[in-house]
Amino acid sequence: MVEADFLYICHYNNTMDKELILKEILSSVLSDLDLVTQVKLEKPADSNFGDYSSNLAMVNFKNISERFSSPKDFANFLVDKIKTKDQKSLIAEISVAGPGFINFKLNGDYYLLELEKIISNKENKLINLGKNKKAIVEYSSPNIAKPFTIGHLRSTIIGNSIANLLEASGYQIFRDNHLGDWGTQFGKQIVAIKRWGNKSEIENAENPVEKLVSLYVKFHEEAEKDDSLNDEARNWFKKLEEGDLEAREIWQNCIDWSFKEFAKIYNYLDIKFTENDGRGYGESFFEKMLQPIIAELKSLNIAKEGKEGATLIFYPNDEFSPLMIAKKDGSTLYATRDLATDKWRLENPRYQNEDGSSPLVINEVGSEQAFYFQQLYRIEEILGWYKKGQRVHVKHGLYRFKEGKMSTRKGNVIWLEEVLKKAKDEAMKFTKDEEIATAVSIAALKWNDLKRKSEANINFDWDEILNLQGNSGPYMLYTYARAKSILRKASPKENINNKIEISLLEKSLLQKITDFPKIVAEASSEFAPHHLCNYLFDLAQEFNSFYNKFPILNSSLERQFRLNLVEATSITLNKGLSLLGIKTLEKM
Ligand code: ARG
User: What percent of the chain has pLDDT over 70?
Assistant: First the structure.
């Protein structure tokens, strides 16, 4: 876990983070004594000892031992100094324990204030990690005339959430979709459509992509018997590259039919892209830049012709196996198009940081491409295009279905649409309302994809993803709706009674709420939405225990404080879930 760079977490709800303030007090006491050390705060396991504890007296004693008889003695001295520096009365109690630990209890009023501020804050930018920085987040990236796979679904969900997190962290974000709309497979597709397809039949089919996939499968079956089909396909791809009108038209039809399908999915899942009028820059956009890239890499001696006549990138000291960028017939590959894409991004002023440096570029793509992306990034580093850390591959693992792994071989595909429909049917088991069922099912799928490290494989289990009692999307929505229902029943706001005693459980819930920006910093700097899920799940659980233990609407002195706590929880859940791309429901 990153020590969440406290320096970056400046303004949450216009208040300073309480840990940051405490740390600032402690650092300033130390620097008055000419001691410079990093201040670390621990949370005591037993909160009776206080909210925070520090070992700074013990750590610094050796540097100042001529003035004090023991670390404990030094700790007592520090306590007085700290008290005078605490002008905002953040600290309620401060004590020395054991060999010289200093324990802090924070002021209840401070929490009340903090609570007020969370409730009144509408800001969505939580931290400043990405101030003046730009990032391109590329996700989804399905292939034209091929199924939108579960892998593409994962990329869509995870990539979208990472883009949201970076945006909340102050980055300027560009959301791109690197559609697979170019490559020799289009030669095969054209042959199949011309030989066995029927344009109006495809166009009017309920799912045109399904028709295209079965034509593609048929091509492979027939080509196994008749190799001349492969030559024919190569020929058609060549024609496509040369701009032959018929080839271009068929190819463009494939794109339009496929994109229509994809757009339905994006719309259903509430996913957007910002680049190229919301379509994203597919591989074909870079077509004209492919030969120049090959020529450039050859002239730099980075790429050379291999024995078989193909053009390959060879790595210094054979660090990686060679990467092919042109086949022997001159046709380009996936890698050639990625290189062209990344160079274009680099040179496009839209994406440059104000200081002229390269943007952060993130590719959300399955783990099976990990080696390929290492090869790609290494070459971009050797070329001086991007520095370490400016290119990031966020990987995702596979879905494993109980019934056996889903596979795309020979058209034996599990269609995403079927998964979406099944999720909705399952959700209909607990509600009669179609709209609620749709929202619940989408939340269930998204949460399931985001709640663990993205690299992990998922054993897909309908009972788990829809479990209203467990770590699931429906549980999260349900908790939020519960909070909102309490708030609907509350009469107009009263003033909080400052004399109330705040219980440990309530304090801990409030602390949890104020941790939110720190978690957003952690999740975005690690490109890891699961940190946010873990946090939100803990928050929901703490909230539910609070709800089960204390009367809220029927309490007297504590009533408004507790209602504020409910409201702050609901705001935090809502903000957190929206960063995950999950829409909340006011009622369930
Ligand atoms: N279309 C590719 C696939 O389905 C993913 C593209 C990922 N992005 C990239 N820049 N290579 O496997």
Answer: 94
What homologous superfamily does CATH list for 139-405?
HUPs (3.40.50.620)
Centroid of ligand 1 to alpha carbon of 284 (angstroms):
13
Nearest CA to ligand 1 atom 4: 142
Which residue has its alpha carbon closest to ligand 1 atom 11?
338
The Cα-based distances of 69 to 32, 34, 62, 95, 521 in angstroms read 20, 19, 11, 18, 41
pTM of the full predicted structure?
0.85
Nearest CA to ligand 1 atom 3: 142
Strand ranges of the sheet holding 323-326, from the earlier edge strand across to the other edge: 303-305, 311-313, 323-326
Point out which residues pair with 399 in neighbouring strands.
458
Burial string for 419-445 (b: 16+ CB within 10 Å, else e) reads: bbeebbebbbeeeeeeebbbbbbbbbb
C-alpha distances in angstroms, 280 versus 175, 307, 339, 416? Answer: 8, 37, 17, 21
Give nearest CA residue, ligand 1 atom 6.
141
Reply yes or no on whether the pLDDT at 117 is more than 70.
Answer: yes
155 alpha carbon to ligand 1 midpoint, in Å? 10
For domain 11-106, the CATH architecture is 2-Layer Sandwich (3.30)
Q: What is the 3-state secondary structure (H, E, C) of 525-578?
A: HCCCHHHHHHHHHHHHHHHHHHHHHCCCCCCCCCHHHHHHHHHHHHHHHHHHHH
Longest dimension (CA), the chain: 94
Letter for the amino acid at 226? D
The pLDDT of 296-325, averaged and rounded, is: 96
Looking at the domain 473-579, which fold is it? Isoleucyl-tRNA Synthetase; Domain 1 (1.10.730)
Cα 585 to middle of ligand 1, angstroms? 34
Strand positions, DSSP E, 100-157: 101-106, 134-138
- Give the Å distance between the CA of 257 and the centre of ligand 1: 19
Task: Pull the structure tokens for residue 4.
Answer: 């969440």
* Domain regions of the chain by residue span: 11-106, 139-405, 473-579
* Residues in the ligand 1 pocket, defined by CB under 6 Å: 138, 141, 143, 178, 180, 338, 363, 365
pLDDT band at 15 (very low <50, low <70, confident <90, very high): very low
Mutate to test the pocket of ligand 1, among 141, 158, 333 (most ligand atoms within 8 A of CB): 141
Q: List the helix and strand counts (H, then E) for the chain.
A: 21, 12
Ligand 1: centre distance to CA 85 (Å) = 55
For residue 394, the CA-to-ligand 1 centroid distance in Å is 12
The preferred substitution site among 138, 179, 365 for testing ligand 1, maximizing ligand atoms within 8 Å of CB, is: 365
| C-alpha torsion sign, points 318, 323, 326, 328 | positive
Report the percentage of the chain scoring pLDDT > 90.
Answer: 73
Residue 320 C-alpha to ligand 1 middle, in angstroms?
Answer: 20
